[in-house]
């Protein structure tokens, strides 16, 4: 499952939106996906303190769905994740 989670991160990174915004921060989301990679829940659980960054982070995740199917050896019907999106001023 660790490999699947690493692939998930890489998939999300492909949808990263470069921004020219001076703020820095991290936005965290609670994500639940089903076996087929479809989203069941996408809920922001912490804010960067900047509405623009928060909205951009959500857009990045929304553009990333659906994910690929779970590996066959993963027995649960869903996956429950806490996922951070970090922004640095250099970006």
Structural class: alpha+beta
Provide the gyration radius in Å. Answer: 14 Å
Sheet with the most strands, sense and barrel status: 3 strands, antiparallel
Listing every helix as H and every strand as E from the N terminus to the C terminus, the arrangement reads: HEEHE
Work out the helix count. 2
Task: Explain the layout of strands and helices.
Blueprint: H1 2-14, E1 25-34, E2 39-46, H2 51-64, E3 78-87
Antiparallel strand pairs: 1-2, 1-3
How would you briefly describe this protein structure?
This protein is of the alpha+beta class and 91 residues long.
Explain what you see.
- With 91 residues, the protein is an alpha+beta fold.
- It has 2 helices and 3 strands, in the order αββαβ.
- The protein has helices spanning 2-14, 51-64; strands spanning 25-34, 39-46, 78-87.
- It has a 3-stranded antiparallel beta sheet with strand order 2-1-3.
- A hairpin with a 4-residue loop joins strand 1 (25-34) and strand 2.
- Helix 1 crosses helix 2 (51-64).
- The radius of gyration is 14 Å and the shape is elongated.
- The termini are far apart.
- The model has no long low-confidence stretch (mean pLDDT 89).
Observed structural traits:
91 residues; alpha+beta; three-stranded antiparallel sheet; 2 helices; 3 strands; 30% helix; elongated
């Amino acid at each position: 499952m660790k490999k699947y989670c690493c692939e998930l991160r890489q998939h999300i990174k492909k949808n990263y939106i470069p921004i020219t915004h001076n703020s820095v921060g991290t936005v965290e989301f609670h994500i639940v996906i089903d076996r087929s990679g479809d989203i069941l829940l996408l809920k922001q659980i912490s804010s960067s303190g900047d509405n623009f960054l928060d909205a951009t982070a959500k857009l990045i995740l929304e553009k990333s769905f659906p994910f690929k199917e779970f590996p066959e050896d993963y027995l649960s019907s869903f996956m429950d994740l806490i996922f951070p999106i970090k922004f640095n001023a250099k970006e």
